[in-house]
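The records we work with from here on pair a chain with its fold. The integers have meaning only within a learned vocabulary of local backbone shapes. A complete example follows; check for yourself that the lines match position by position.

:::
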Amino acid sequence: MMTSVGGYSVLPVLLPNGSSREESEVTHCLYVQAHAPRQPDADSGRSLFVVNVPVTSTETHFRHLFGTQIGSGRVERVQFQHDEASRRPGPKESSTNTEVTMNKKRKRGEEESAEEYVSRLSTIKLPGAWDRPLRPSGSHAVVTFVDRPSMEASLKAINKRKKSSKKTTIIWGHNLEEETAEDNGNNNNNNKSSKKGLCPLGSARYNRHAQLRYPSRSELLKSVNEYMSVLSKLEEAREQEARRRGNVVDEDGFITVTRGPKRAVDAGREEEMHELVARQREKSKGLEDFYRFQMREKRKERQGELLRRFEEDKRRVEEMKRRRGRVIPEE
């Protein structure tokens, strides 16, 4: 069997047979090398890049592989491909997260910013329908260790296994499935995962999926209420920020105009406005008939008033006739 391919160290593992756990006949190869991304971050120096992970891989499997079976280092976390939950932030995102964590040490009574509410909204989700994800075939993962010596020791142990003639066979997830089954049996066969977080496969997985498809009303209400409360706080925070920006003069000397509720006018200002209106009316008292168009408008108003009174009198006469009845003239 090849020991390296294109700079990757080959680590063969045996996958348990689905029909019998005692037999392990399928050989699966993991391709491992030191993680060297195009844009290195703070964790690149203590990470391994693993290609062709098994479809049933979980973080527990890799912790068990490097911590117990190889016994060379402690794993801090595992970032799987196509897995948003384990996605590590990039350089820009990490700096943003650092600023957010620094802002968390705020004074008592100080409210959160809109960016913090947006990040909280992204973490609120409905209950999942699967208790254990399956990986696409041929996908990769980034295994981050607690420190660089642990990563180097793990990579060195993998390379030693290639040269050693007396090497023990690594069974993928050995004893994890048995421990999970025992824990589930002690829990009255409720199909819950063990303390190590390894959920069962096979028919138990789909039985659990059928149950998780219909979450309880309390769980749904909890998720929805939490999301709506954070969303309302986000809208309030955005309104406050827009109001603050509206009072700040920019570089060109302009003030940003924002939409918002009308500000209440104080009592003193309102009285002053009434006084100004009254003074203006007094000044224009003797100037009603000064211009010709004013005289025309007054004539039209008088004509309209006369027509209105005529129509009212006409309706009044008709009403009186209707009440008295029809009058028949004498012959």
Summary: Confidence is low (pLDDT under 50) at residues 91-103, 184-196. Residues 292-324 form the longest helix (33 residues). Residues 4-87+113-177+197-223 form one domain.
